[in-house]
Amino acid sequence: MDKKPWNLVRTLFVAVLVISIATLGVAAVIGGNWVVWLRGAAVAAVSVWLVALAGQAARGKRSAYLRIRFITFAAPIGIVLILLAPDSGYPGWMKAEQAVVGVLVAAVAVIVNRRAVREAYPKRGKLG
Fold this sequence. Notes:
Blueprint (H helix, E strand, L loop, with lengths): L3 H27 L3 H25 L3 H23 L7 H21 L2 H5 L9
């Protein structure tokens, strides 16, 4: 299995982690409501998990690959809803941060849904 896509996926997930930790830092400096703290902490925690999943998927674990596919499909939809919600409790700076996170996660979705990557994780019983 080609590890190059998974190196890029891991790098993108680490970028999301760094951004989410920076978001918590901004919230600590300028203040943030409970929504900011909850979302920032949740994104940071999930990012750590996604980095670990990327490692498992790179080693051929189909369940990790499927989880990444699902999350990278669903997360950008949730982020768009946050961005469009008129009174979500998120300040503008955090909506901008979430937009960047959404773009990074959508990039991962494009990578993991490429035909060559999908074919590396055949369904059980399908060998070709």
